[in-house]
Specification:
The complex is a heterodimer. Chain A has strands at about 10, 20-25, 35-40, 45-50, 65-70, 70-75, 85-95, 100, 105-110. Chain A is mainly beta. In chain A, the strands form two sheets. In chain A, strands 1, 3, 4, 7, 8 and 9 form a six-stranded mixed β-sheet that branches. Chain A has a three-stranded antiparallel β-sheet with strand order 2-6-5, with no helix packed on it. In chain A, strand 3 and strand 4 form a beta hairpin. Chain A is globular, with a radius of gyration of 13 Å. Helices cover about 0% and strands about 55% of the residues of chain B. Chain B has no helices and eleven strands. The N and C termini of chain B lie far apart (about 40 Å). The chains are: A mainly beta, B mainly beta.
Amino acid sequence: QSALTQPRSVSGSPGQSVTISCTGTSSDVGGYIYVSWYQQHPGKAPKLMIYDVSKRPSGVPDRFSGSKSGNTASLTISGLQAEDEADYYCCSYTGYSTLVFGGGTKLTVL
Amino acid sequence: EVQLVESGGGLVQPGGSLRLSCAASGFTFSSNWMDWVRQAPGKGLVWVGRINGDGSSTSYADSVKGRFTISRDNPRNTVYLQMNSLRAEDTAVYYCARDYDGLSYWGQGTLVTVSS
């Protein structure tokens, strides 16, 4: 159950797009469609942004999109806004009914 | 409206035990898997374990297996995390989450501090 690999930080200016990667193995990210992404602002509970690789829950702006290629999943945020500044975590099903998170990525909006 | 409210956190000595509760409302509780996730101070999210809708199946992270037990009381719409043999590295905010189409709803968390 090794954590998925995410960049520690990414940044972008308002209006730009940023992509956060999440690298695992064929036993987790590469083996299942059950990859999800969470946004967490300081002192707050995490919020689901993407599930099943690319599906958006109701209420999440379509500026947020997800994809997967091989063992790497990605979260893309287009049209960056100041309120997008937060920590982002990926999560994958790993088989045997277990989950694993990535280490988290701090997004800074310049 | 879906609500999850954790309780039971606090200060406990190393080797001690604590039971967390998570009261759910606003959805059909017995039909949903429920998960526990923790976050040490200043660190990332770590999955702890999960339980299926009728409580017949559980799974755990290796770091807590054999020490933590997840259970549920469906008539009370409550899921529990029994934590035994606590260690300093178990210090964290513990969140419960509804496991349906991702971890779709989260509680506000309850802080557990393991220290002498």
